[in-house]
Write a structure and sequence with these properties.
Elements lengths: L1 E4 L2 E2 L5 E3 L13 E8 L5 H21 L5 H5 L5 H7 L1 H20 L8 E11 L3 E10 L2 E2 L4 E2 L3
Parallel strand pairs: 3-5
Antiparallel strand pairs: 1-2, 1-4, 4-6, 5-6, 7-8
Helix pairs in contact: 1-4, 3-4
Length: 152
């Protein structure tokens, strides 16, 4: 995995994720980031969430009598790793539309010694073997009067 912000490599242990207000505008100065990760390096906890999501789609589609995500049904609801090989674009789409928090929290679970906070995702692209995610970060700050993480 490679995470860069404004073309500078950042250690993944110094990155957090904005849970409140994710994707909303912020008054803080933001920087562009790029995350590149191979599909086979995705955390197992994320893969479990993705597989559960896909199986829930199968159940929901069966109950309602039609698919919400036609391509997922066409591919017969494969496990996520298999899906990355059959349709990297659909894999990226599922992350962008439904599984982004699952992925970000699996990749960046830390809450201490942070330097950057991921504020949003602007794009997710997939190739046969990897994901490229872009968006914005802002500097990590603690409200010194309350000792709380500042997440606008």
């Amino acid at each position: 995995m490679r995470f860069t912000s404004e073309n500078e490599t950042v250690n993944q242990h110094h990155i957090g994720c904005r849970s409140l207000g994710f994707g909303e505008p912020t008054d803080l100065k933001t920087k562009q980031y790029e995350l590149i990760i191979d599909f086979n390096k995705l955390p197992s906890s994320f893969i479990e969430h993705a597989n559960t999501f896909i199986q829930q789609c199968r159940l929901d589609d069966t109950e309602q009598g039609f698919p919400d995500i036609q391509e997922l049904q066409t591919l017969q609801y494969p496990e996520f790793y298999e899906l990355t090989k059959k349709s990297p674009t659909l894999s990226a789409s599922l992350i962008k539309d439904y599984l982004y928090f699952d992925l970000l929290f699996a990749l960046f679970p830390q809450t201490e010694n942070l330097k950057l906070v991921i504020s949003n995702i602007t794009s997710i692209q997939a190739s046969d073997t990897r994901l490229k995610i872009t968006g914005e970060t802002f500097p990590f700050k603690i409200n010194t009067s309350t000792k709380n993480i500042y997440q606008p």
